[in-house]
Each structure stands twice: as structure tokens, then as C-alpha cells.
Amino acid sequence: MKFISKLLFATTFAASAFVCPNAFADTDNKSGTYISAGIGTGFGTQVNGTIKGVGFSSDATTTFSGVIGLGYDFGNNWRVQGSYGRLTADVDTVTVRGRVYDVDESGSGSLLGLGVAYDFDINSNWTPYVGVSVSQAWADDAGDSSSGYGFTLGASRDISESVEFFAALSLGLTPEQHIDGVDYNATSELGIGTGIRVRL
After folding, report:
1. 63, 71, 158: which is closest to 109 by C-alpha?
2. Among candidates 128, 153, 141, 52, which has minimal Cα distance to 91?
3. Which domain holds residue 145?
4. Taking phi first (over 0 means left), then psi (-120 to 50 degrees means alpha), and beta for anything else, what does residue 75 get?
């Protein structure tokens, strides 16, 4: 059972691709390069699949995500950013052939992502924004990587001329994929994140 639960982390990480979104929005529409850092957590997901023809279901949660990014603000409400992240996830239970196993295991992994976002000028101290991303994730205990997609709805606020704070709600999606001999169904996870962006 340890073998199965460890493999689940690769898909969990991909599902949390944008649980920890990076700040994109900007009230002043200034173009230029910036760096960002953020943290986030997930609300939990169910990971389903088959291994050697045997179906399984697992309850898993992204417990922590930390992401740093390097991006460019085009000055016309559009942003693009590359990111690197480290994440941890917990697998609480795995169900196989109707039997529930309490595995209570944790794992960690890394991801690389690319995101695009658009902010909305509403003449307020807070600037809402939406973002989409793609990512590739690697669990530390799995040989293969997994892909994921993210969608974010957030808001940001300037706290100085060069520093901006943000908070966001995100949805990470993982398509059906084959990882280390395991066939995974599509899955998703909601999460929240917060962080800062610093203009260079």
C-alpha cells in the first residue's frame, strides 16, 4: 500500500498547479520585470485510478505550496510569468476493492509552471485579476512527471511603490494520465494562496 500512496503525490501536485498563485495584477499598469513569492494550501481532492487492472480511490490534500516566480508586466493589463514551486501533500486513506486502508502518509515534490493573467481596472485600491497556467510536477518518490492546469481568481493591492500584496482562490486540474505504471483519472483541487510581488 505504501507503493500506491506514494505514487498518488505526483497527481496531487499537478492538481495543485495554481493553488499557490503568483501576483500578476497591477493598478498602475507599469511595464517591466518583477519577482514574486507566495504560499498556499489546498482543500482536498479524491484521486481515482487503476493499477494492474485494480481500481483504487484515495483522499489527498495539498497541505502546503510555496512558489517563486519571475515575470514580465506588459503594461496593458497582461502579465506572463514562469514559476518554480515546492509542495507537500498528505494521503489519508486509500480504498481498494471496497476496503479502506488508513495510510496517513506525506510526500513532497516540485513543479515548474508558466502562467498568464489579466487584471481589471475598477478604480479601487484593490485590483481583481484572473489567471491561467500550465505546469509539470515531479513527486520526490515517483519517476514520472505529471501535467496540470490552473485557473485563478484573485485581487491585489499596492503596499508600496514597488511591492504588491495579493490573495487568490485557485482551481488546479489534472487530466487523465499514466504515471509510473498507474492510470489516473482526471482530478481537481481548490485552494487558496497569498503572497507578494516586487518590481525590479
Report:
1. 63
2. 141
3. 2-199
4. left
